[in-house]
């Protein structure tokens, strides 16, 4: 009996399995079994898996017709017939560091569900680092809303005790329309009483997102992106450097927005309200259990990114916030204002528009503020106003690159109205 069961759902990525499975085979913890679940996978995927399984008896695969959504229902029987103590998950085009399995099961020594950070690399090579303390009170409150909000999720980043999985009212299943399956599953753990939740800013895997920028890549082209990272991921310091160079992802911004941090007297106490304590960048992250503070090693730039997001929340109450925000923007962070406003606007449009109003009133980042307001008009279907705003923006910012993108979004929105 293997100590850990690794589930790897797959559909059409085929060749990327050579790299993702190889990263599991390199684990220092060798006590595992893997089941690859083919959810309507084509013949090429099955050929790849036959070749992999022939050389490693710990790996098997199941072939199923295409199921609902991502074939989540196929995962439940695999877990129920296993005797493994721990359940981990592998994305079929993601890569594990050789200590990933040991790190995840180590977190489960004191918890029933473990969630670590995600490091993902965009097509241009920029890393993004996403994390949140899911056991902290703001996260649990958001998870229990009628319209739940999940601060962070991900397939590779969470692992559970099998006994905790079996205690759930419902196991793996297709979630509501519009809700990712991993979010739906993790919500089950967060809303089940008595389960211990471990959270860490440590990231021991690399995610190479495929659904947006790489969505048109062939499996072979995706594999080309994976191989250089596979070759380096176990090199000492590789993931540490990626983490320190990374831009902070949306989960931290969501946590600050919904964690009641705007009224905190300073950034460090804002962090504490969301279950985080910032430490020096060379310190190792410390796991937080059931909402206890987790430590997050931040560089000066990453701390500034957090402060910028926090200041956006304080613009209408703190007269000094706009001045400090201006300094941070002038220090090379102005480009982050738009994604931060968008992150807030995903769940609280009024909040993001209020911040936009204050930016304009203080004559700060006028171009960014107007670009975001135009984006909101398009997203909310206010196309007549959007048309007028595009015309006004063209007169004011004739050479702005973002305006061409707005025109494309506007044209697409018009085409959908028929």
Averaged pLDDT, please?
A: 89
- Could you give the distance between the termini? 58 Å
Low-confidence stretches: none
Number of helices: 18
What is the number of E strands?
Answer: 15
- Strand order within the widest sheet? 3-2-1-4-9-6-10-14
Report Rg.
22 Å
Estimated helix fraction = 40-55%
**Class by SSE composition:** alpha/beta
Shape: globular
Relative strand content: 5-15%
How many strands, what sense, and barrel or not for the largest sheet? 8 strands, mixed
Map the helices and strands:
Elements lengths: L3 E7 L5 H10 L6 E8 L3 H11 L5 E6 L10 H7 L4 E4 L5 E2 L3 H8 L5 E3 L2 E4 L5 E4 L6 H7 L14 E4 H5 L14 H10 L6 E3 L5 E3 L11 H14 L5 H8 L1 E2 L1 H9 L8 H7 L2 E4 L8 E2 L4 E4 L2 H15 L6 H13 L3 H9 L3 H13 L4 H14 L3 H14 L4 H16 L2
Parallel strand pairs: 1-2, 1-4, 2-3, 6-10, 7-11, 8-12, 13-15
Antiparallel strand pairs: 4-9, 5-11, 6-9, 7-8, 10-14
Helix pairs in contact: 1-8, 10-12, 10-14, 12-13, 14-15, 14-16, 15-16, 16-17, 16-18, 17-18
Describe this structure as you would to a colleague.
By secondary structure, this protein is of the alpha/beta class. 45% of the residues lie in helices and 14% in strands. The chain has 18 helices and 15 strands. It has helices spanning 16-25, 43-53, 75-81, 100-107, 137-143, 162-166, 181-190, 219-232, 238-245, 250-258, 267-273, 300-314, 321-333, 337-345, 349-361, 366-379, 383-396, 401-416; strands at residues 4-10, 32-39, 59-64, 86-89, 95-96, 113-115, 118-121, 127-130, 158-161, 197-199, 205-207, 247-248, 276-279, 288-289, 294-297. α15 (349-361) packs antiparallel against α16 and α17 (383-396) runs antiparallel to α18.
């Amino acid at each position: 009996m293997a100590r850990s069961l690794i589930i790897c759902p797959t559909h059409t990525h085929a060749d990327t399995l050579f790299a993702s499975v190889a990263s599991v085979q390199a684990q220092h913890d060798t006590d595992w079994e893997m089941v690859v679940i083919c959810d309507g996978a084509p013949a090429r995927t099955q050929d790849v898996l036959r070749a992999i399984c022939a050389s490693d008896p710990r790996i098997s695969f199941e072939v199923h017709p295409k199921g609902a959504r991502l074939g989540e229902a196929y995962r439940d029987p695999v877990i129920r017939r296993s005797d493994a103590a721990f359940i981990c998950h592998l994305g079929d085009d993601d890569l594990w560091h050789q200590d990933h399995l040991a790190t995840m099961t180590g977190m489960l020594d004191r918890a029933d569900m473990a969630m670590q950070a995600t490091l993902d690399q965009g097509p241009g090579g920029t890393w993004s680092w996403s994390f949140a303390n899911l056991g902290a009170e703001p996260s649990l409150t958001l998870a229990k809303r009628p319209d739940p909000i999940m601060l962070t999720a991900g397939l590779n980043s969470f692992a559970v005790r099998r006994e905790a999985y079996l205690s759930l009212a419902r196991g793996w299943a297709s979630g509501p329309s519009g809700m990712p399956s991993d979010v739906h599953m993790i919500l089950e753990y967060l809303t089940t009483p008595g389960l211990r939740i471990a959270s860490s800013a440590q990231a021991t895997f690399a995610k190479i997102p495929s659904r947006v920028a790489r969505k048109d890549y062939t499996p072979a082209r995706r594999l080309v992106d994976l191989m250089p990272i596979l070759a380096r991921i176990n090199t000492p310091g590789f993931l540490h450097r990626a983490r320190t160079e990374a831009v902070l992802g949306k989960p931290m911004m969501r946590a600050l927005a919904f964690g009641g941090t705007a009224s905190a007297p300073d950034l460090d106490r804002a962090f504490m309200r969301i279950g985080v304590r910032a430490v020096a960048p060379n310190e190792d992250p410390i796991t937080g259990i059931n909402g206890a503070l987790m430590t997050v090693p931040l560089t000066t730039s990453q701390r500034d990114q957090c402060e910028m997001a926090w200041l956006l929340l304080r613009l209408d109450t703190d007269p000094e916030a706009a001045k400090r925000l201006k300094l941070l923007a002038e220090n090379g962070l102005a480009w982050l204002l738009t994604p931060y406003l968008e992150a807030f606007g995903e769940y609280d449009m009024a909040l993001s528009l209020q911040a936009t109003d204050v930016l304009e009133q203080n004559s700060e980042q006028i171009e960014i503020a107007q670009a975001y307001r135009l984006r909101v008009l398009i997203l909310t279907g206010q196309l007549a106003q959007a048309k007028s705003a595009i015309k006004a923006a063209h007169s004011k910012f004739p050479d702005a690159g973002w305006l061409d993108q707005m025109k494309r979004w506007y044209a697409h929105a018009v085409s959908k109205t028929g």
